Each structure stands twice: as C-alpha cells, then as structure tokens.
Structure to design on (834 residues):
C-alpha cells in the first residue's frame, strides 16, 4: 500500500472511531486511561528495550546530545507518563456540558453543548512521552487521535502504541481511537495535514521550522505556537521589590521555555533605580545583557539591535529597553511581541486596567512572572500546547481547547412562522 | 500602485486601526454606529443614484434577474440597514467580559477576558446591505474590517463606504477601521486571504464555489459555511401532529435557505401512518418527492439516488428515507449531513438525549423545526454567517464569534518557584 492509501485508511478509521469515542461515557474513557497505565507498567521492560534500540540507532546516526536526551525514557519520565494518565483520568470531562440555556420569544429553549472536535492529528518530534500526553488528553476530550512522532523515536512510539491499544480494548473502545502512524515516510505528514474529510485539527509540537512548514501547507486548521517573545514592563509606579523579583524570575527560572521573558521594558523614571541592581543579579546568573542607548548609559550592556527585539533567545540573554511611558512600552509590545505573554509591574490601578485590556497577547499579567503562563499553573490540569493563534483557543490549550460547542434546541413541536 | 502594494497598505492600515477599535469604549462604538445610520439617511439620494448606476450597468452586462434582485437597494432594504445599525448599537458589548476568575494554589488569580480577533476580512457577493451588516458587527465586536464586495455592487458599496467613514470620524475612530477595497481587480482577494500578518480571520459570504475557492487558497483562518444538508428524523415515539407540522415547516417555510430540511428520515414503525398525509401536503405546496424503495412502497415518489442524499436542493425538492431505527437514522446523518442542523421528533426521553449528544452538527434539535437555526432566533441579535466548521465557532456566528478569549493573571509580585 502506498503512503497516500495508507493515510486515507488511517483517516477513515479515525473518523469512524471518533463517533465511538464521542459517545463513550466519562467512565469508559477513564477506565481506558487507567488501563493504558497498567499496560505500560506491565510492558515496562519491553518499552525500555525499544527505547534503548532507538537510542542506539540515534547514536549511530550521530544525533546530538540534546536530541538523545529528549529521546530517552528515564525512570522519572516513565513514572511521569503513568502519573499523567492518572491525572487526566481524574480531570473533569468537558464533554456534554450544557451552558447558557434560555427561552426565546418563539418558545424554543436554546443553549450550547460542549462536544469533541472529532479527529485530532498530532505531529511531534523526539520525545516519546508526548505520545502518552497527547493521546490521553485527546481521548479524555472525546476525540480520536492520529499521532505522528519523530522517526528517531519510532520503536519507542510503537511500543507505547501497543499499550494504548490494549488499554482501549479493555475499556471496550475501538483500538483505532488512537492510531500511531506506522511509517517513517515523510510524505505521511503531507497527507495528514491535507485530509479535511478525516482530520478536524492539527496540533504540531516541535521547533519553529516544523510548525511554519505545517501551517503553510495544511488544509486543516492548525492550533499552533510559534515564538514566545515575552515582555515584562516595569512601570514608574511599580513596587521595585516586586519588579526586581519578577524580572529575575521571568528570565532566569528557566531559559529554554516559551514563557521566559526575552525583553525587559523599563520606565525611564525608575531605570536608574532598578537597572544597576538587576544588572548585578543577572551578572551573577550569567545572563548576557543587550540594551538600548539609554540602558547602556546606566549599566554595562552590549548594543541591542533591531533583530534583538524580535528574537526569542531561549537562552541566558536579555534585551533591555528604557521607555518614556507605558504607551511606548505598549507600542513596543504591539510591534515585537509574538502574542504569547506580557506582564506589567505597577501599583497604578488605571494603568494596570489599561495594560490588561489593550495588550493583545494570549496571557496578560499584572505583577506576576511570565513563567506562570502554563496549563498546570492555570488549573487546566495538563496542556497539549500553548496557542499563539487568535481564533479558537489562545494560551495554554487543555481539554477544553480540544472541544467546541454546538447549539442545542428544545422545542415542543415548535415551527417558525 | 499595483494590487499587491495596495492590499499590503490596506492591511497595514487595518492592523494599525485595530488597536484603536479594540481600545474604543462601548459608547464610542455605539456612537459611531448611530452616526453611520445618520450619514446613510443624509446621503440617501446619493446612495440610491449609485445603486441605480450599478443596476443599469448590471442590466447592460446581462446579469440575471436573481442577481439584479440581490443588487437592488429597495426602500425596505434601505430601512433594514438603518434598523440593523440601531440594533447592533443596542446589543451588549462582548469585549472585556472577564469570566472564570479564580485563585490558584500559587496565589495568582487567573481568568479569561473576551477580546476582539483583530482584523476581519469579509468577502461577499452582490448584496450591498452586507457591507453595513458586516461592518457594524465587526465594529461592535472591536475589530477592524476589510470588506471586499462584488464588482457588480461597486458604486453602491463605495457610496456606503463614504457614510461609514463619516460615522467613524464623528465618533473619533480612525476611518481605516472599516475599509472597502477600492479595486475590482480579482487579484485583491488572493492578496487578502494570504496576509496573516495583517488579517486574523476571513468570513466569506456567498455561493459554495466562492467559499471552496477561498478555503483552498487561504493562509488565514476562514470561518465558513458550505452546505446546509439538514435532516429531520421522525421517530416511532414521535407525536405525529408535531412531526407533521415540523416536517412541513422545515421544508416549505422557505426553500432557498441553508436551514431548510433537505432529507426526511422516518422510522419504519410510523412511515405508513405519516407519509401519506405528508405526501398530500407536500403535493399541495408543489414539493417534488424522491424516496428510497420503502418510501416508494407507501407514497408516490421518484427514486432517490445516492446523489440525492448528498445534495442541498435549496428548492422545493425533498428526499425521504424510511429507516429501521434511530441508529440507522444517525448513521445516515453521520454519512450525508453537512453538519449544519438536524432535528429529532420524539417523545422518548432516552432517545432525545442520545440524539442530542451524539449527532455532530452545529445545531441539534428536539421537536423543533430546523428553520430555527438562525442568529436572530437564537438571540445573538444578528449574525455574520453560520459556521459549519468545528473549531472556533459553530452554528450562527454573532458578536461573540468575532471575538476570542485571552488569559488574564493578577498577582501581587508572584514568582514561580
């Protein structure tokens, strides 16, 4: 069978299975999730052996250390998969919730019911644990899933797939409710993202290159996350103690994450009061500073270029700009932000209110570190990704982001006149 | 200036204006809407003259009667535009609403704020009143708009554009908040749907060909509505009086609308009791019937082919199928429905509940005519279209469908540890 025919078969099976998953009770879905955890535990040795083979192959193919690191299933990441399944089983089921039910003058009663999207396609790179994370969230939200992992994790993903199939079967759900693509042919991705008849939404997880390519070629809606160029703006009405703690935390808590601050904006009125102290602390942590002219008049920093303002460093590098007022900070954000997360530090009520309303990012914060932009921190339980798109779901995407709402209408023989 | 440069300029202006519209108060937006109504009224003669020129040109170009009919601004449709503006001004402003605010264990307070999408592109065909409908909904929901009407309505749309610009200026909003494309060059559409940097969503309104073309080529999300192949299923536990009224109303209230029933599914247990009576009533209304074998054993009807089940007639034609049970009805719907609207007629609690939960359409009804699937009937106030997509907005799309939600976080100097 060629790739096109194979993917069409996978798609058709997913579409069929999606009806069964959508109709499954919360109990069925939870039983399946726990059964997958049991199956993983029972197959631990087999899974670890498959992962060792992937790692061996990866080393032979000259994969770099970071990639091998992501590929490895450690005892901790194995426990993490089991714990994740149990946590998702414990989350409330979003499906079927009816809201906003009201009577209309015609006599009909109208409301909205939360329902699964249908078939979700997930395209990801080397981490095999994404297979479990993504499959569990899609299953709990009533969707069928097609997973396409990285070729370097092929054996690990296939071993996980067998455990998922066992769990589904035990709960009486079709094994095709979660399908892992059984070919490393890259053409499979091209097919997956151009089958709107079988796939309702694509969630790519990986580097910017992968996501840009998928967004460009997809004929199916994509829930995507490109850059995380996050800003903290320290207002002249800020409590400088809070500002210091937030500016340090947002940059240095972790460097390689999308919700880390990449640019610090400081009101001219407090720049001299706070920048020297921040520069010392960043220096101690080994953070390289790049600044505008006014910044460099106060502290030692390299010249920040136009490119710096538009860069997601994902590294111990920070660009700093001194601004005249909040309006200039908001202009800077409107121009350079990737729409992920921005935070203002201020004690001023009116400015906080204005910043919240007018900054157009998926998370907007007052007096909090950008590092809080995260599904667990927001109480979603888990996230399938963080969306920097504007339609459907913005910010951390959990179970609710994998559903939509349909209208339900109750009548008593009502007709339109 | 070539089309590409012109459209980039329009896009850039819209993106800039979107910040001002998003920041405008509810009062500003309402004042602008009412000022547009005043400007229309003051320019009535000029507008009617422009429309007469379009009509004259249309006749010379041999446009058919239906197209000329849609193109004409009648006294009634003129009043309709004024009334629409006043109604939209009277609707509640969806922007800024904060919901689901709660404290997290970390101490931060997290919620969601409803916000405009940004820039909405509307592509439509001959009706000039869509210019006002679309512009008013987009403005009230805080979005900047780029409108591309049919070339046959060019003069009418330009005259309306001048009134909109006057209204916006009077309320202190940028005139570029609503831009009507000033070229009939078809390449402008190609540009509009491939500028994700300037346009956040496209809403096409028109025939299926237009919408398919736009969906295929767009690099911007599209809120679209393809077919309306709507079903009514008459269960054997139906109240046959209600079933009769609903089946007649759903088909014959209006023929050319997307929420009209195209296929009637009848449980075998009541087919003989209800089909003859329905056949008489449909006959009196001039509705042509096409049926499956079992239908044709009971009433006179042409043979319904595979193609019939998959056709949106938009005409006095109805296909009828006798089914063995509700499961078969739901299988038929899953296979042939366009996901617009389906209704079950039954007095059975369990079946009503199951149909509601499991039928995957944008509106699912119990004991009501499919004709109710409409923004006004649902209380949205007005609709920009009906979405048969699954992500973002399903069913009638009103002000809320032109917005999304961002996360807002309140802290008191909180950092992540």
């Amino acid at each position: 069978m060629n790739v096109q025919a194979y993917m069409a078969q996978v798609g058709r099976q997913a579409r069929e299975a999606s009806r069964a998953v959508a109709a499954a009770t919360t109990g069925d879905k939870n039983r399946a999730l726990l059964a997958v955890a049991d199956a993983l535990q029972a197959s631990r040795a087999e899974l670890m052996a498959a992962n060792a083979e992937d790692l061996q192959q990866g080393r032979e193919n000259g994969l770099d250390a970071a990639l091998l690191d992501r590929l490895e299933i450690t005892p901790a990441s194995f426990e993490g998969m089991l714990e994740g399944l149990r946590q998702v089983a414990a989350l409330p089921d979003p499906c079927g919730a009816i809201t906003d039910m009201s009577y209309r003058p015609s006599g009909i009663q109208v409301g909205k019911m939360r329902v699964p999207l249908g078939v979700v396609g997930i395209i990801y790179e080397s981490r095999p644990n994404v297979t479990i994370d993504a499959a569990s969230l899609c299953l709990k939200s009533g969707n069928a899933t097609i997973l396409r992992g990285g070729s370097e994790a092929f054996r690990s993903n296939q071993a996980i797939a067998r455990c998922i199939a066992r769990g589904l079967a035990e709960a009486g759900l079709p094994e095709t409710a979660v399908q892992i693509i059984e070919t490393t042919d890259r053409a499979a991705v091209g097919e997956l993202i151009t089958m709107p008849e079988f796939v309702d939404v694509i969630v790519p997880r990986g580097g910017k290159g992968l996501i840009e390519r998928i967004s460009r070629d997809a004929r199916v809606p994509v829930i995507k996350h490109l850059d995380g160029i996050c800003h903290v703006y320290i207002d002249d009405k800020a409590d400088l103690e809070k500002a210091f703690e937030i500016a340090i935390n947002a940059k240095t808590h972790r460097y390689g994450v999308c919700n880390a601050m990449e640019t610090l904006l400081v009101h001219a009125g407090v720049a001299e009061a706070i920048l020297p102290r921040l520069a010392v602390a960043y220096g101690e942590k080994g953070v390289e500073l790049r600044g505008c002219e006014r910044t460099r008049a106060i502290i030692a920093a390299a010249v920040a270029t136009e490119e710096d303002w538009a860069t997601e460093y994902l590294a111990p590098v920070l660009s700093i700009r001194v601004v005249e007022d909040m309006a200039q900070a908001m202009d800077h954000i409107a121009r350079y932000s990737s729409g992920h997360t921005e935070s203002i530090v201020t004690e001023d009520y009116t400015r906080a209110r204005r910043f919240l309303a007018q900054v157009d990012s998926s998370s907007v914060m007052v007096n909090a570190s950008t590092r809080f932009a995260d599904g667990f921190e927001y109480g979603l339980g888990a996230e399938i990704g963080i969306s920097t798109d504007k339609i459907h779901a913005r910010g951390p995407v959990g179970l609710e982001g994998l559903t939509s709402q349909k209208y339900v209408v109750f009548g008593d023989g009502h007709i339109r006149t």
In short: Residues 23 and 142 of chain A are 8 Å apart (CA to CA). Chain A is about 45% helix and 20% strand.
